Amino acid sequence: MKSEKITSPGPPRRWYEDACAAAHALDLLGERWALLVMRELIFGPRRFSELRASLPGISANVLTQRLAGLEAAGVVARRRLPPPASAQVYALTEWGMESEPIFQALGRWAARSPLHDPTLPFSAASLLLSLRTMLDAGRAGELAARIGFRLGEERYLTRLEAGQIAIAAGPVEGADLVLDGAPAVIAAAIYGGQPLEALEAAGALRVEGDRALAARFLTLFPLPPKAGLEKG
After folding, report:
1. Cβ contacts of residue 149 below 8 Å, gap of 6+?
2. What is the pLDDT of residue 232?
3. Domains in the chain and their CATH numbers?
4. Is 8 helix (H, G, I), strand (E, B) or coil?
5. Cα dist from 223 to 113, 165, 191, 231, whole Å
6. What distance in Å separates the CA atoms of residue 51 and residue 62, rounded to the nearest whole number?
7. What are the tens digits of pLDDT across the range 126-161?
8. H-helix or E-strand containing 19?
9. SS3 breakdown of the chain: % helix, strand, coil, rounded to 5?
10. How many CA atoms lie within 13 A of 95 on its CB side?
């Protein structure tokens, strides 16, 4: 097999030469795939191989370039996991973590697009970030619950309380409800109106724990209305 040549990322080819901070943000993050690499790191450090698996359209060469560029910008840092893993991972810096509201604003805005295709690949980070983006605090009210997610090899425990949702990677034992399935399947139940029973019958989803909580949980993330396409 012919190996891919990994090239040095170097400085950006073009800068906007604009003092606006939004323009500088695009200087830092405007390269294709850069924002999606950051999205995949919002819920914790990832290995290079894990990033490639969660971004099926990216090549090793491009991922290497984007990670190097984000590291040079101070957004991403390399770390080494302690033994016995002793593996190199990539993580958002403290400043990089401040980018989550950017993804939430973009997500809410783009969810209104009539051209959005929800059938495309959907990663675990995409699903979890969407929950924090679309949660309707009014609908959640005073509901307090722990919901676990088994998403392939990944495990996450969410804590819903006071109209907010906190998410952390880790064991789901002790959760009031556990949803076990591919991110796209769980998204189909939450956003696409697919009945839990039908997904369970098809073997695509497992629901463990409080089923009444599951039914209510699915109603807490309403999508905004689609924007109309104006004709010229």
Report:
1. 124, 127, 128, 155, 156, 157, 158, 172, 178, 179, 180, 186
2. 62
3. 21-98 (1.10.10.10), 104-217 (3.30.1050.10)
4. coil
5. 11, 17, 7, 24
6. 12
7. 999 999 999 999 999 999 999 999 999 999 999 999
8. none
9. 40, 20, 45
10. 9
